[in-house]
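[job 4471] stage=fold_predict status=RUNNING
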Amino acid sequence: MFPRRAVASVIGIGGMAGALGGIIFPIVTGKLLDVFKSSGNVTGGYAVLFSICAFAYLIAFAINHFLARRFEPFEINEVKANG
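[job 4471] inference complete, writing structure tokens
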């Protein structure tokens, strides 16, 4: 889908998104479980978390399908320096 010279950049962006998710998700998880624990319903918090995890793949599939409907080669215009 991407030319060889752009593959590393695309993989890097994907890795950065995964790392940010790995940083943010535990924080959100802790806050969510604290809220449910203070209300006396810890199992409700876990049900919400498992639901989020279950639907994350479906949402990611829908976003991927929307952004890349057809797998066509992506063209990159090169900028040439004057001189």
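[job 4471] summary: The mean pLDDT is 87.
[job 4471] exit 0
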